[in-house]
Amino acid sequence: MSDWDAKLYSKFEKDRTQPSIDLVHSIPSNEAKLIIDIGCGIGNSTMVLKKRYNDARIIGIDSSDDMLIKAKKDYPNFEYIKLDAGKELDTLNDKYDIVFSNACIQWIPDHKSLIPKLFNLLSKNVIQTVVNSTKWCIKFSKPRELFSLLEEEYYDVFAKLTNNFRIWETIYFHTMPSHQSIVEWYKGAGLRPYLEQLSDEDKVSFEADILDEVKKTYPVQKNGDIIFKFPRLFMLACNY
């Protein structure tokens, strides 16, 4: 898969950051010395962690060169490591007080194996937080493979690791100025595996078809805005 486009992804940085804010404020512990942000992207979630845990050492990891370049530019005071969380978690030697991930693990396969690996990165008496986002599914000849489990399956995975966990879903009502803005949102994330398979000419036609479907799905409000409903599944666990 081609690299992420940090500039495109950042167009909706405020809306994309809100789930990180909500999740960080759900963590019961007020103290942490070492935190890892898995799939830190452009560094916005890393900054959210820093605002609550100002004295902590926070390390952001991501597999995208373009995302890390922007993260280092916008938030230069953090440590960043290029690392593929789907393949290289075993190379991390430290234990962390908080293992955090926002809108990342849906890109990583085999969650029944992944979540125990994340949990094992924790030091004792600490917190793990993970958020997984639901994506709009589009029919395609080579569809993107979505890596996720049913809520009941996530429950069973966490129940094997700890008795202290919870799972919940929040639906965000993002305000968009146009239907095209919703298309741009998906172009920055979920549509990437589809668009990279198309020629420039086919991309124009494909995006036009998507825009037509978006217009059918999301009505225009009386003031001209569009409400973009976006559900996110949150998971938070402690190993004490």
TrEMBL record:
<protein>
    <submittedName>
        <fullName>Trans-aconitate 2-methyltransferase</fullName>
    </submittedName>
</protein>
<keyword id="KW-0489">Methyltransferase</keyword>
<dbReference type="GO" id="GO:0030798">
    <property type="term" value="F:trans-aconitate 2-methyltransferase activity"/>
</dbReference>
<feature type="domain" description="Methyltransferase">
    <location>
        <begin position="35"/>
        <end position="123"/>
    </location>
</feature>
<dbReference type="InterPro" id="IPR041698">
    <property type="entry name" value="Methyltransf_25"/>
</dbReference>
<keyword id="KW-0808">Transferase</keyword>
<dbReference type="InterPro" id="IPR029063">
    <property type="entry name" value="SAM-dependent_MTases_sf"/>
</dbReference>
<dbReference type="InterPro" id="IPR023149">
    <property type="entry name" value="Trans_acon_MeTrfase_C"/>
</dbReference>
<dbReference type="Pfam" id="PF13649">
    <property type="entry name" value="Methyltransf_25"/>
</dbReference>
<dbReference type="GO" id="GO:0032259">
    <property type="term" value="P:methylation"/>
</dbReference>
